[in-house]
């Protein structure tokens, strides 16, 4: 039995391919219960289409030449015949007939037409038997897999039948080899079976009003993401990006109120984010960023609905996520580990100029941000996160000019920051949240500064219509609240500025959203000598 089974399993596969090939050469028709139409080939409940059944009237004059063949059919409905002794075309005295009858009656494998005929010539009769033999092999293989004992006599019969079809099987072997070679060729010439292209285009208009000063801009941010998976669980992302909407800071004179989708005013299409994410076990994800990595690549920013990375949600950088996350960007590694269903830990290190070998740059000799975060979820409705970041020469590009010390002083700065964030979903359409953060900054050999920021947020999913989103944010962008030795360098925020923001994201189609938004800055740049500034925007996002 051990010697017979391997042969049978091999023959099973080979015969299946042979029968499919033979079906393209000439018609062969065997019907099972439920087919009900002559001209269909049916085995064990499966139906393969073949020429129209004989005996039906047709306007095609060529069918008149088929009358000698059509005499084997009739216009009666066809039904199932299970007992092989009723089949006429194969004589009961044939050995193949006797062997097939024994198997069919024992296992209910093959069926025929109601008129008890196999339709075809002698050469096709062998292939009809090959189809039955294939079903016998499948049936017995299934029984063995379920642990049922199969009589040795039946196994011996199957072996004899497969030997009887050795010529057909040898020809089929060549067809299978050719098919395998062709399949291999297709696999080698394909671009990638696991790469998906996603596109995102933001067309944004922005207007700035401050006393007698007004300006309107119109531009874009275009992203093409090539997402590749090698295992089905990993992700290689190659992002191409072009920007055409400059930072508003150039006109307002402060990073406060900066839009979440602005950047260079006329950049070419170039590689932006380049990262690889893969799992370790079932609870850990590792991210390796070679370029333009960000904190949200490996950690939760705890601002659901509002953090859409510029394409959706809040329209400003400050309202998109807590400023502490902007201190971590560049090239490096991040790890996200789920301790259990409620507790998650994130760790990461990104260098701002990790690919630059010049002095004062590189992965460990230049600007960097190192993050550690603990997040706790309560019944999928409330999330609390505590975040710590140690950074060197990294600015967050929000808040007042004086809080962006690296850009303001062009001196080395070390910062230590903590942030507490929370989000509570009171019901499916009402989410409140917020954050508060504190930073100590040391300007090496010059002095120290203390910085604070906070925000309260409200998100209204499906507001007015399913898929829409309303949002309100009020907060204080980063402000210098105290310093030691830096006032002589002009580092001082004498007043307090408030950031007030409202937006409504309207879902036009599954791929297009339109988001009008407004930002009101009181005492911009934390200086009451500055007139209040209003920023209005209309963001259209197209995703494909």
Automatic annotation (TrEMBL):
PROSITE patterns with a match to the protein in the record: SLH
| Region entry Disordered, spans | 49-75
Drop me one GO molecular function for this one: porin activity
Provide a GO biological process annotation.
Answer: carbohydrate transport
Q: Which residues form the SLH domain?
A: 83-147
In terms of superkingdom, the source organism counts as Bacteria
Which InterPro entries does the UniProt record give? Answer: Carb-sel_porin_OprB, Cell_Envelope_Struct_Comp, OprB_sf, Por_som-like, SLH_dom
**GO cellular component terms listed in the entry, alphabetical order:** membrane
**PANTHER family given in the database record:** OUTER MEMBRANE PROTEIN ALPHA, OUTER MEMBRANE PROTEIN ALPHA-RELATED
Its family remark reads:
Belongs to the OprB family.
| Protein name listed in UniProt | Carbohydrate-selective porin, OprB family
């Amino acid at each position: 039995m051990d010697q017979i089974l391997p042969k049978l399993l091999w023959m099973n596969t080979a015969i299946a391919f042979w029968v499919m090939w033979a079906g393209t050469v000439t018609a062969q028709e065997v019907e099972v219960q439920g087919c009900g139409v002559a001209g269909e080939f049916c085995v064990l409940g499966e139906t393969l289409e073949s020429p129209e059944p004989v005996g039906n009237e047709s306007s095609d004059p060529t069918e008149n030449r088929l009358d000698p063949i059509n005499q084997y059919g009739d216009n009666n409905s066809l039904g199932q015949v299970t007992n092989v002794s009723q089949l006429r075309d194969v004589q009961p005295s044939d050995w193949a007939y006797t062997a097939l009858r024994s198997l069919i009656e024992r296992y209910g494998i093959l069926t025929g037409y109601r008129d008890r005929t196999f339709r075809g010539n002698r050469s096709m009769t062998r292939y009809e038997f090959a189809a039955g033999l294939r079903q016998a092999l499948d049936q017995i293989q299934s029984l063995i897999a379920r642990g049922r004992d199969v009589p040795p006599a039946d196994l011996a019969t199957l072996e004899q039948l497969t030997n009887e079809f050795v010529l057909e099987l040898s020809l089929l072997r060549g067809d299978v080899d050719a098919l395998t070679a062709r399949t291999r060729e297709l696999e080698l010439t394909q671009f990638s079976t696991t790469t998906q292209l996603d596109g995102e285009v933001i067309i944004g208009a922005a207007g700035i009003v401050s006393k007698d000063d007004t300006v309107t801009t119109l531009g874009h941010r275009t992203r093409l993401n090539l997402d590749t998976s090698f295992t089905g669980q990993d992700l290689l992302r190659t992002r191409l990006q072009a920007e055409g909407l400059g930072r508003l800071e150039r006109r307002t004179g402060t990073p406060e109120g900066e839009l979440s989708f602005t950047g260079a005013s006329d950049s070419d299409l170039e590689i932006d984010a380049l990262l690889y994410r893969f799992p370790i076990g079932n609870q850990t994800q590792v991210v390796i960023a070679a370029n333009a990595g960000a904190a949200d690549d490996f950690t939760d920013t705890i601002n659901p609905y509002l953090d859409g990375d510029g394409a959706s949600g809040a329209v400003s950088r400050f309202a998109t996520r807590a400023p502490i996350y902007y201190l971590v960007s560049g090239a490096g590694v991040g790890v996200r580990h789920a301790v259990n269903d409620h507790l998650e830990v994130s760790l990461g290190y990104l260098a701002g100029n990790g690919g630059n070998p010049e002095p004062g740059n590189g992965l460990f000799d230049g600007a960097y941000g190192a993050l550690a975060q603990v997040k706790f979820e309560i019944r999928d409705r409330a999330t609390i996160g505590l975040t710590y970041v140690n950074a060197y020469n990294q600015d967050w590009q929000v808040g007042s000019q004086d809080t962006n010390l690296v850009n303001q002083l062009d001196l080395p700065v070390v910062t230590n920051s903590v942030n507490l964030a929370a989000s509570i979903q009171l019901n499916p359409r009402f989410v409140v949240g917020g954050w508060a953060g504190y930073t100590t900054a040391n300007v090496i050999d010059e002095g120290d500064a203390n910085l604070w920021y906070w925000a309260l947020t409200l998100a209204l999913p499906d507001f007015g219509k399913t898929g829409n989103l309303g949002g309100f944010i009020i907060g204080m962008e980063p402000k210098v609240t105290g310093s030691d030795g830096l006032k002589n360098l002009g580092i001082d925020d004498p007043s307090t500025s408030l950031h007030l923001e409202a937006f409504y994201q309207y879902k036009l189609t599954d791929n297009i959203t339109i988001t009008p938004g407004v930002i009101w800055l009181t005492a911009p740049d934390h200086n009451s000598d500055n007139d209040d500034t209003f920023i209005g925007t209309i963001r259209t996002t197209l995703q494909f």
